[in-house]
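Researcher: Good morning. I'm working through a list of sequences from a screen, and I'd like to move beyond sequence-only analysis. For each chain I'm collecting a predicted structure so we can compare shapes side by side. This is the next one on the list. No need for commentary yet; just the structure.
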Amino acid sequence: MLLLANTLYAISVVLGYLLNIYFWIVIVAAVMTWFNPDPYNFLVRALRMLTEPLFYRIRKWMPFTYLKGLDFSAVIVLIAIQLTQMIVVKTLAEWAARLGAR
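Model: Good morning. Structure tokens for this chain:
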């Protein structure tokens, strides 16, 4: 039972870190759209590769996220990340604690 508890705790920690990193990637990508960055820059291309597929799906599923030239798909992604952290990550950590980890 201790192995399962430690595994669940490790998964919750790693998932929390990954979601936190992606949260900041989305913020940087959203701020980057306010400027006119060089599209051939490696960092700009990497950020777009990491965020645009998700932004595109959000825009496709929820067309109201693009209003009068403003794109709110990044806000939807940030809310989804926060909800996932509050619900999934916290639930995994509490479940691991009940099973005896840490």
